[in-house]
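Working notes for the structural subgroup meeting. M.R. asked for a predicted model of this chain before we commit to crystallization trials. I am recording the input and output together here so anyone reviewing the notebook later can reproduce the run.

Input as submitted:
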Amino acid sequence: QVQLVESGGGLVQAGGSLRLSCAASGRTISGVGTGWFRQAPGKEREFVAAINRSGGSTYYADFVSGRFTISRDSAKNTMYLQMNSLKPEDTAVYFCAQKDYSGSYYVALSYPYWGQGTQVTVSS
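Returned structure, recorded in token form:
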């Protein structure tokens, strides 16, 4: 049974930073691609960032604009999202997900396993 648990969300002022963590169990986090998505109230879930199986490639949404960095620690079976220069429009619930072996990194349907989400609130 794959389980993903996010942590690290919270309230931060605009311009601040947060680091989200996603601890995996039941499946190695480096065995497949993994990613971060977010969902703001009244909006659809959207892609934020992903890292491929080998860790050699990363993918980011355009709105990240160099502010976020995805990484992982295979020894801890944990993935991270370092978020800097946060903006109020980054406010959302952030989800980590493990990808299937096929499908686009940018599409939520490619990810069969999801965490419960962690709230990020950025105040202006």
